[in-house]
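Annex B. Sample input.
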Amino acid sequence: MNKLLSLSFLLIYSVGVTLAQQPVLKPLSHEAMMSMKRVGAPKISPDGQWIIYSQQSVSYEAESSQSDLWLASADGLQVPRKITQTKSGEDNYFWHPSEKKIFFTAKREGDESAQLYTLDLSLGGDAQRLSNFSLGIGSPRINAEGNKILFSAKVFPGVFTDSLNKKRAEEKKKLKYKARVYTSFPIRYFDTWLDEKQSHVFVLDLISQKVENVFTGISLIQSKGFQLGSFSWAPDQQSVVFTATIDRHTTAYQNAISKIYQVSIQGGKEKLLVDDQGDYTSVEFSKDGKYALALGAPLNQTKVYQLNRLYRFSWPEMSYKTELVSTLDRPINQMEVSKAYILASIEDQGLDRLIRISLQDGSYQAVLGGEQGSFSQVSLSNQENVFAYQYNSMAIPAEVFVHHADKEVAISKANLALLKNYDVKDPEEFWTMSRGKKIRSFLMKPASFDPTKKYPLLVLMHGGPASSFKDIYGYRWNPHVIAGTEYVIVMTDYTGSVGYGEKFAQDIQFDPFKGPGQEILDAANDAIKRYPFIDGSRQAASGASYGGHLANWMQATTSHFKCLISHAGLVNSEAQWGTSDVIWGRELMNGGAPWVPTKTWKEQNPMRFAANFKTPILLTVGENDFRVPINNTLENWSILQRQKVPSKLIVFPEENHWVLKAENSRFHYQEIRNWLATYLK
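Annex B, continued. Sample output.
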């Protein structure tokens, strides 16, 4: 089962593209990138015979974009076929536990909100709507018998029925004034202003079509700081286990702590299952119902980052708490549980790998993962050693595969033919010694690469900072599209990145920009020494979110680059603390509140070095970005104009933290490449 070092099926997949190449292949344009099919997570049938997955076609004309569900045989012998044919996309799709029937949520014609649909694949025909719930159906989960479904929906406080919630919503629409009123934190999240609604768990009886609010009797919902986390059917199929916090209103000055609770599907008082000062995010159960598996972290209000741990409890007592894979020291991105083991996707040094974790002793072994590409979105069947997953890399968009005991089978192959026309390369990995530690970087060569030429260098800086440059396919900052035929790109995982151990991610605390910035510069200099085709006299740096922060830090502290690009970047740490949707982590990062004169606030705030701003810079921002609000970009723009620095500002009125609309994205890429061309001739 250990295929860590040898993945011939992926080599065949990649080489298949290479062997079919013509003498001259085209660079990946924005139009080509957008024409790639976006294949969603697979769901394998319980008997291991069938796969469903979503597949989206994106168009520059929004009304022409389409997403549908596809069905394929797990042996790969039948060509996948589309099984839905509507304009609206399907989400939250899953199988009936014992029948050849699937469920999904969709907002179709006549639906005011997302509803639950079912499609009987043994009969064919169109999907049938199962719900007419005005609040919409979210995160549905079916029980073992296949006759009840849990789901979440947002309700007004103290209002538990669909009809009363609908009436309350209509009353609010009739108000002649428009105002948002708050008495506690937070007031908005990412790109949305928050309101008084709470997420509750409901149960839908598929036989009677009756819907009941499971939370009618729990006391948690009386708290000002209540927020639902995840939820799951308990093994008895008569109760719900969920995570929730009552501390959300305190997140201006501490981390909110989520605990694990249980409540009957008939309603009533909740039962606190674990009260050990841990912060839990999710709970799943082994197939035999013997164990509860929880992801969480020990309570710590002093660290800027904490790695989620995997804990096993005996069920139903919730006793004998045991940490599994205690030596792993890597983030678990996603997992599925069987009777004897857990199949998990973990992040490890720029790659997502699959590991198998023993439920008995917590030991683990590698399943899939090599030197390139990433494995994620695992879906287990009831057949031993048969599961579905996604594979992708910087060169290959996500595709669906199935693992059998003796082979890997490519299922979707949605982009294989199209990729043969384009020169998309795998990245090269190199490591640099900087500040006494090993720092990993990816290097990407441009299309039509000629080793005898000299290429300008573009340094890309990732966001987060608790993130990384992974060998995965991207649409927001695709290095192939940015590089074209002109630029070599270096992408560095600076201190604070994840996938290198908890301590490496934590070590950015109190040093948000200076240390990481130096590591990025050291990696760029190392690349110039290693690769003779890089022209070290022509360098630029670009980043978004935390990468945008770092671009502004480079503006403040070095004249190393010919030009810079900053998307959604802070220039004033103090203003970012006061206007972002999340603030406590920023206080932890800097060692205190902004009015506390810590060394970090004083010495690592780009604005304090505005007198040094000289490098031409392109600023871009979404007007609906509440994570790094537009005020920071406007403040930066004012500084640049005051200092007479060559600069350009682009504001996207319809976008949030990311530039997602197809035409906006195309324009954004064009402006980035135009800016680079102007200064890296």
